[in-house]
Structures
1.
Amino acid sequence: MSLSFKFIFSKEIPAMPVEHVIENFRKGFKLTYCEEIKQVESNKIHVMNGFFHNFNSHWNMWTGVGDAWLTVTEKKENRILVEYEINYSYFVIMWSVVFSFTIFSSIVQFTHYGQSSDDMILSGIIILSFLFSFEVLYWRHWSFFRRALSGKYISAGNYNWPQILSDKTDEELRYIASGKSMLNSDVAALAKKELEKRKQH
């Protein structure tokens, strides 16, 4: 059984067309220099990158990440669950090689010349670099997840929003109208109109 290192971001949001969420994330992924995007199921996207990723930007969010999955699951009570899973095993492998080389060099140094303060300084720098790089990796994907959920990458789409919104509860409509959902301002305006229409009846 292969060992893998992953972190997962997830959030439940008011129900909306699953394909709308999938398309939003797909457009976001295309802007991040990933190597391949594949829709494996109607509610799931798989992002794939090779070990020697094409480094075409500083602090590329896919450096050290082989795979990522975006899954949208319909829940009860008009809710959907959005899960974003990132496999950063390549990142761990790369840094393990760096650590191993550093330890080997330190042993050779100690064997021939005795312990040196330079070795301790170098080890400290490498550990700090590892921690900093991991924080950047984690933050980049967390930030992407939040931006995608906010609806940054997509328009209203070709959906019958008046009909969709008419099936929502008042609470869901207020949430959409507030602009806090991943739907854009056009849909938020339609939600406000639906609320106003209900008040008149």
2.
Amino acid sequence: MADNEAQELQNRTREDEEHILPNNNLLLVFFGLMMTSFLVALDLNIVATALPSIVAELGEGQNYSWVANAYLISTAALCPAYGKLSDVFGRKRILYPSIMIFLIGSALCGAARTMNWLILSRALQGVGGGGILQLVQTVISDIVPLEVRGTYGSLVPAIWAVAGLIGPLLGGALSDHLSWRWCFWINLPTGGLAGLVLFFSLNLNPHQGKSFQEHVREFDFLGVFFLIGGVLSLMMGLSQSQDGWNKPATIGPLVSGVVALILAVLVEGRTTRSPIIPPRLFKTRTTAIILITELFHSFAYYCAMFYLPLYFQILRASATKSGLLVLPYSVLASVTAAGGAIITSKLGDYRLVTWSCYVCSAIGYGLMSMLNERSSSAAQILFLTIAGLGIGGGFVSPMIGLQAAMPQKEVSTSYATFMLFRYLGSTIGLSIGQTVWTGVVQGRLRKMPGLNLDISSAALANSARHIQSIEVLAFRDCQVLRAYTKGISDIWLLLTPILCLGLIWYLALFMKKYSLKRRIVRAED
């Protein structure tokens, strides 16, 4: 009874909170915001199918996962700071430079002549891409009421659906018929147009500026130092895990990262300055549940986005065809994300969509673990469809729940924390996925006497696309091909109980419902 009364009091308090909406031409502003989101969405979907072609030209297959990890590491490392910096300096002063940095990184990626050059450029891209993703959602929360934010916010996953539809196909077509470099250069005209539209159309509430000295006095430098250092170190360690979890290059960063994050938590909980991460996020049960389960969700999603194209290319699909074959997963995930956001707004409850997400995705990933080199096209399409339908529900609805549980003034820092957990889960997923795949393939190939095949980590990534050219037919058609596909199916087998754990975490801890209603005030012209 006491819990129910406290919940009702919290809901009344949230409903009485005032949200001042600036006047905007929402059609024009959302066109600019969606074009900006399209930059990042297209980049992710194009690069996933172009990776084998990139490795084939630049070599260094042992760094296959670093092309993705470098982007995620730089994004996640700065993610805690984006929300606070946008509060301090204003949204536009962070959004516009983020677009410019992303475009510069894209140009450098397209010009890369070595794998190290590409990886460093991807890291620069991640700095800009992280700012774009963070600020687009923050701006939406500034200009749209929470009660209908799911409907408007559904445009973001809708854009991801479009990118998911054309990205893999475009990435494969450019790689096969022109050059993988155009997968990055194509961002330049899109980004330029998006930046111009936002510059001339976006109106926000006047920023309550303070003097530089006041910003310095209030900014939590120690907290941001430990957070960025901890995240960077932890993700570096995870990315090195493909060479073995017992190596100093893996253990050192992991240990130092965990220690730094523990110190960051202590600092954030005790600081008298304005914290980078609101402590109430971890003190409120619902928000804590949402953040933890976001790790599970992003772990599963990003593994699929990077290892499904590899699975199909192992089975002799070209980059273009592998992009087409991944569409049942990527497009349906985006469509379900948009549909789930609309349902959340209509029902005023974010819990049903989230629960359904974990049930359906756990079933889908369990079925995907049965895929091998002999699986029919019908089975591939069906299993990927179920997994995509499930995983999409975890993108927007939990984020709306997080915003509903937090005051409006902390929305930007709350979303930054949500995205931090998403990127951490992504990097953990890619690193563990690489470890599982490499370990399984190496273990099976070592048991094949007389097989003249380099099974080092670098060689496996390089040879995956050309596995069909192995000369010994008996090995090529059976044991070797089985080893490569078994490594990928074991990734899905690992992810199935993780998704089940996410569902159990939601249900066992009884995530609460917070009202989506707020008192709206229109800003004067």
3.
Amino acid sequence: MSNERPIASRYGGNRNRLARSASRRGTRRPPFARSFFGHWMPGRPRLGSEFVMDHERARVLVLAAHPDDAEYHAGGLLAAHASRGADVRIISVTDGSAGHHRRHPRELAVLRRDEAREAGRVLGAEYVTWDFPDAALFPTLELRRRMIREMRAFRPDLILTHRTCDYHPDHRAVGQSVQDASYLVTVPLVAPDAPHVDTAPVVAHMCDLFTRPYPFRPRVVFDVEPCLDVIVRMLACHRSQVFEFLPYNQGNERVPESEDDRIAWLAAWYRRMIRPRADHFRAALVARYGEAGNRVEHIEAYEISEYAAPLADDELDRLFPDPASSPGGVPRIRVEKGPQ
């Protein structure tokens, strides 16, 4: 079955929206643009384009490999954006059908789609699961064109995704496909059924601690303690993963029976899993928070891709709002029971 389908104006189709953030990024070309025969490259306005100069809500698109990847790696940033009224769209590129030890793949794909939608409701975000088979993803032309159409339809200011060096082949395939699409989204004759955009978005890689071929170099680090509750409740929606498969995959750790005890257990597990990030990027935390950075224990970190639009200093707070400074704090959501 083909995963390509024409995209109509699902998000309004207003081409005047296409470069609302470009004017805030300035007019200087990124380094790679100057090396490309002097041609214009994505992320900067072309002469004659009109741009909206205001402080409108950010549009954030997550292109992740599996349901639950976005929450685990970027839940804090997504919660901060949600508290500011941003338009957030989360996409799991694969159907998640390989992530279990007992359930049938077809049953699992349906279940994980439902779990993802429930997690999206925690933030008031749309959470979409594509139908590429789990654990069988490659950076194909089909996938690249699907991403190009998605980027053109949603017109994000910021894309969050995986790095191209990662332990999971699906993560690598998604990261490579986003990288390949980041420039081509501006080329009219590529996927011509979807109107092209004049500027590329900022692309940020979600945190990992791998060192080969090169270590993660964060531009942004921040404390996610203020929104750990929201992150955990989003993760808890993915019951088939956090309460079934991951405990099995990581050594048959026993999961409590009651809902409250499960949430407490999951919170402790999540804190334990992300704790190494803070130690790894301690110097960056101290640079941001001063002496208080030595006491931060749970963080998110983001590396800016060189292959899309650069991140201007005056866009930092809009695209990467600190959860601690979000107006009214982060959302407090009670997660309803979903499919078991």
4.
Amino acid sequence: MVAPEPAGLSSPEGLQLARELLRPKLPHDIHDYILEGICKAIDGAHILCITKTGGGKTGYFYGYILLLKALEKMDPPCALLKSRHPTNPAMVIVFPTKGLEEEMEVKFRAFGISALAINEDTLATARRSKRNLWQECIKDVDVWCGCRKIWEGRMGSSYGRFRRFCCSSTIEFMFRVSVLVVVCKLIHEHCFFPPLRLSSMSKAPIGPAHIIGDHAAPCRSSKNVNFGGLPVSHQ
């Protein structure tokens, strides 16, 4: 007899479990629409969330990694999960600017999430103190915050180092990646930059879900957004 398919974390009972797991980790209850998006992503769906500036997109990011790590600690394992995720899961977030990248690094740490911003400035600072940020993010970082330039190849030798980082079959970090997040601006004006296909650059498997968050979108233009067939959460 074939076992029934798990209901998924985005089922009513899954949403309730997710809220219970997140509640002690946050100073406030997470919004219902954010919780639904997080749970659908953990179930393996690709999520495109269009929000106004200040609309709570950060909740998708910290909520996802906090919930995934809480689920990992459950004993016995959660029977609702539909998708498999890596052990000691991590996430990669690509930001349009260095300022936003470094601001988000601080926000993640405020929630007890280990985060590391890598750009030309942080790399230069690390070199002066003989630190290797690439090496640090392999095992000890939950969230790697990267800037747009590094994905577009505009950081010179650092981009070469980034490609080697992704392509190496021995790099443990890529086996931990559960989600790729791309934060962009004004999708309707086509300034979304193509995310690098980690699955083709790396011999390691990329996780099942990509959360793609919009940095800002005017409401009048965002109602009819169709982004590659991805489900759209419009707030």
